[in-house]
Amino acid sequence: MKQTIESALAEGVKKRELWAWAMFDFANSAYTTVVITAVYNAYFVATVAERAPHATLAWTLALSLSYALIMLSAPAIGRYADRRHAKKKLLLIITVINVLATLALAYTGPGTVALALGLIVLSNFAFGTGENLCAAFLPELAKADSLGRVSGWGWSLGYLGGLFSLGLCLVFIGWAQARGWTAAEFVPGCMVITAVSFALGTLPTFLLLRERGHSSRAPGPTVSTWAHLRQSLQQLRGLPDLFRLLLAIVSYQAGIQTVIVLAAVFAQEALGFGTQQTIAMLFVVNITAALGAFVFGFLQDRLGHRACLSGSLVLWIIAIAVLALAEGTTAFWIAANLAGLALGAAQSAGRALVGFLSPYAQRAEFFGLWGLAVKLGSIIGPLSYGLTEYLSGNNHRIAMAMTAVFFVIGLGILAGLNADRGRRLVHTV
After folding, report:
1. Which stretch of DSSP H or E encloses residue 51?
2. pLDDT per position as a tens digit, 46-76
3. Domains of the chain (ranges plus CATH)?
């Protein structure tokens, strides 16, 4: 493994930097796993919003607003980070924001809907912005022919971070329930555990990861966020394969983000899972997701970026079909673990392929566009689920079945992508 790691790294990059970079994936997984995926989402619907008919829709609207804010700001933040070599500084700022907003979620409870939604918008905006900035380090750390492996290492360590935070919460909830505590009493404790895990996990990133880059430090003319976005999108005319990839990402991420933010809600509201049972299920799913990211990372560099990404989408379609038809816990567990494998594979492959098709000197800017595509999908998917569930009389099965459409569309868009051609065109932009 020593030779494998060293041969994958770009010139001048040390193994400790790769570990420090991957530790951010480890750390931020505490937030997305506990708050967005496993605990707080279901807690919001059942306890904070007290199962109001519009509870799921309100949750998806808050997430959609946070993703819209990320979309508007990502190109400008990415360009600023490139010009000022400020990725690490900005990453620190948004990490502090996320940690403080997550701690504040501990003070929400029954009836505090407005406060809870406001904190979710703020914390998720910080999480998504940090995800973009962290991803922009990838082309600096890995060789072009090793992006898949290195991205997979980061994602797999990230899922282990989700396991770590989920495990701590599972132990705490078991202890609390043994003493007769209700969700309104033990979920705030989970928010504290999550915030502390996130903060401590990022320390290696800020202590060991170097800021690199060859772009000018000159600030250049001041232009608006919309002007930054227009300039970035105009450059995609010369990179048609990257543009096609970003369109595919919008579609399949709509499906992925729907499952991420609503799986626990589906499990509790459609199948009657309890909090402990839901966390245990997601604990196992994180293991399969880490496995998927790690294995597909190696396969991607050997078999091709597009082939592995397309294969992961086929897995997603199968998983959603089984999930929507699940009547008992066995079928749900099968679907959940298939989704876990597909999740790790798709997330790792998509990020690596963006790095493969992006100009080196503008990596943060184009990863900002990647973030824009992910967040646009994150608006479309969960919001579609929330509206479908609301209009169908709170039928979560119909809403989940509709999610498969996003993966089918994404698969069709990817069919015309040529990664080798896209890589050659990078040098002409």
Report:
1. none
2. 999 999 999 999 999 999 999 899 888 877 8
3. 13-212+224-426 (1.20.1250.20)
